Amino acid sequence: MKITVEEIAELFEGKIFGDETVEVDGVSTIKEAGKNDLTFIYRSDYAHLLQTTEAKVVLINKSITKTRNDIVYIEVEKPDIAIQKVVIKYFDYAIPFMGIDKSAYIHETATIGRNVTIGKNVVISENCVIGDNTKILHNTVILENVTIGSNVLIYPNVTINYGIKIGSNVIIHSNTVVGSDGFGYFKNDDGSYTKVPQIGNVIIEDNVELGSNVSIDRSAMTSTIIKEGAKIDNLVQIGHNVVIGKHTSLSGQVGVAGSTTVGNNCIFGGQVGLAGHIEITDNVIIGAQSGVSKSIIKPGMYFGTPTKEYRVAFREEGHKRNLEKYSKQIVELKNKVADLEKIINKEIGK
Question: Residue 343's pLDDT is what?
Answer without folding.
Answer: 87
